[in-house]
Each structure stands twice: as structure tokens, then as C-alpha cells.
């Protein structure tokens, strides 16, 4: 037991000596101005994430916490380890168990502090990267919406069906070819808009201009699609009611 505790103490002191340097490095990283372009910002976040992971490995804080938890577990259940069981009940054992619980609290607090400093250092850069990525997604969605409007909706001519069967077929064809993909694009656009709104609200920024453009375009698509679908359904409904009325007016038998 004593050998393992001594080994832990040496490891603990070594990490404690490296901790101030680690914190200073994180604080220095947090003062770096984030780049303004998407590609540079993506590299900035990726490079600093790698540096943080390397810094964390060199510090050895996570390994120290794992080691500490292992020792605390053995002190809690000494019957599982012969060398610990032999010391159980002694003043040294009680004192060691108390010290290890204190050490566990200190190490856990240090882990949380390092993680918090990292989150604070790059939260703004990561949020900005998210906004850049969402803008890229929005550009793709707007291009798809424009293509759908130009290729499917603007040239679409509403046909007046001759009978109920044709009316049902026209509704079904429009739903499959235009309405379903249009609704999928609208949902994607709304997801981007809502996500950006949450990010900007969290970061205290004003609404981006491109978000308004996406919202305007998706509403234009929704309006165009719904107008055609409602018209086709109205024609189908007319034929349905006309046929029903016609059947009721047909004499059921000879007078």
C-alpha cells in the first residue's frame, strides 16, 4: 500500500508543478484573435483543439485522476487487496484514506478548471465556425430552392382534369415530383434558421442578412407549392362531389 501511495504522491506533485504552465498557455491561447474566413477559422479551431489535447496529455491530469480513483476504490474496499487489508483499521490507513479523498476532490476541481478554461478560450471561435458552416449549408439549400422554383414551379401549368381519376393522378404526381422535395428543403431551411437564431442569441449577435434571405426564399417556395397543390386538390374535390351528386340523381329503377 505504501509503495502505491508514494508513487501516487510523486505523480501528484509532478502534475501540480506543470499545472500553472498549462493554465498560462490556455489563457494565452484564449487571447488569440480568431480568423475571419471560414477555411482559416476551421484550421484555427482544429489546430488549437490538437494543441489542447497535446497539452492535456503532457499535463497528465486525466491519468492522475484515474490513478487516484483506483487508490480510493482500494481504500474503500480494502478486503479486495491483501496489502490494503493488512493496513485496514490502523491510524495510518484512516489518515491516508482521508487524504486521498481530499486529493480526489482537488484533482477533479483541476480537471474541471482546465476544461472550463478551454471552453472559454474557444467558445466564440467555435460558435463563429458553426455560423460559417450553417451559412454554407444555407447557400446549398437556397440554390436547391432556386432550381426547384425555376425548373418545376415556374413552368408548371395547372391542368384541369377531365374526370376524378385524372384529378387524383395529377395531385399524386405533383406531390411526388414537387411537393415532397419542396417540403424537405423547407424543413432543412427552417432547421438552419432556428439553429443560427439559437447561436446568435447565445452569443448576443444580431441576425445575419443571409438568414433573412433564406427565410424569404423558403416562404416563396412554400407559397408557390401550396397554391398549386390546393388548386389541384380543389379540382379533385369538385370531381368527387360532382360524381357523388350525379350518382344520387340517377333514377334507381323504372317509374
Can you put this structure into words, describing what you see?
This protein is mainly α. The chain folds into 2 domains: 2-122, Methane Monooxygenase Hydroxylase, Chain G, domain 1, CATH 1.20.58; 156-249. It contains 7 helices and no strands. It has helices at residues 2-30, 38-59, 61-76, 82-85, 91-153, 164-203, 209-249. Helix 1 runs antiparallel to helix 2 and helix 2 packs antiparallel against helix 5. The longest helix is centred in the middle third of the chain and has 63 residues, at 91-153. It is elongated and about 105 Å long. The model has no long low-confidence stretch (mean pLDDT 88).
> How many alpha or pi helices?
7
Helical content class: over 70%
Determine the mean pLDDT. Answer: 88
What is the percentage of strand-forming residues? under 5%
CATH topology of the largest domain: Methane Monooxygenase Hydroxylase, Chain G, domain 1
Question: Secondary-structure element sequence?
Answer: HHHHHHH
Q: Which stretches are low in confidence, meaning pLDDT under 50 for 5 or more residues running?
A: none
The tally of structural domains comes to: 2
| Shape estimate | elongated
Strand count, sense and barrel status of the largest sheet are: none
Query: What is the alpha-carbon Rg in Å?
Result: 34 Å
- Alpha carbon gap, first and last residue: 111 Å
